[in-house]
Amino acid sequence: MKIGLGSAQFGLDYGVSNHNGKTPPAEVAAILQMAAAQGIRVIDTAPLYGDSEASLGQAQAGAGLFRLITKTPAFHGRSVTAADLEHMRATFARSLQQLGTASAYGLLVHHADDLLATGGEALFEAASALKREGRVQKIGVSVYTAKQIDAVLRIFPIDIIQLPVNILDQRLISSGHLTVLKSKGVEIYARSVFLQGLLLIPPADLPAHFESVRSHLADLWCELEKMKLSPLEAALGFVLALSEVDVVICGVNNLRQLQELTAAARSDVILNDFYRFAVTDPKIIEPTSWPQ
Description:
The protein has helices spanning 25-37, 52-58, 82-99, 112-116, 120-132, 146-155, 171-174, 177-183, 214-227, 231-240, 255-264, 282-285; strands at residues 3-6, 42-44, 67-71, 104-109, 136-142, 160-164, 187-191, 247-251.
């Protein structure tokens, strides 16, 4: 299955539409059991996702059924130091321990700007050393923008990239960056498919910050009614239909949402029906610009 399981909700109160808080450990275990039965094989996590890795390990995510992808810590500096590299290795070792596995499928630099900072080459080499040691199969980066993608591709031979794409945020489709990445053999992992749940909220219920797109989203919902598609089916199906995308990372808060997700994945979506709903305002399509 093309769906991968995001795990931020397992360690944090995450998502604009999440009103129930962090997923309890027993629910995490039930989610993983069903995910495995449905053919989901990728789990995306990170040290920055609270106690997500520990929760996944407790639920035996590292038992061999899933390809586990984790990330580096955030360095937030203008340069990556030798101490940062040691911290990265120690953090990765702790991630493996918490996940209950000897190796991970992927290690991503959590913030592309860390990779592009002074010392970024040393950070990539430290990740590559973990790959040579057999502790991780593939290394890459999580990005937000086309500019970051261009800068990374000029310097680094990445295996995996994680990037945002959804019905509203189609920037990397129209710019051709998905096509370029695929031509270079990079595995593309799409995230923010539901824009942190924004695409699933009835337009009338949107927070005031999204007033500028309220009517736009109301038009989208009217079209979905004509297409006989739910917002979930449309948002998920749009990204699943992108041939360049290898894995669509979706977070769920509970077992019911996973059941709805896997059912929605069976709906067919025609990409041309949705290109006109793209939005370019970063205050809408970049969650880092939203009120906290």
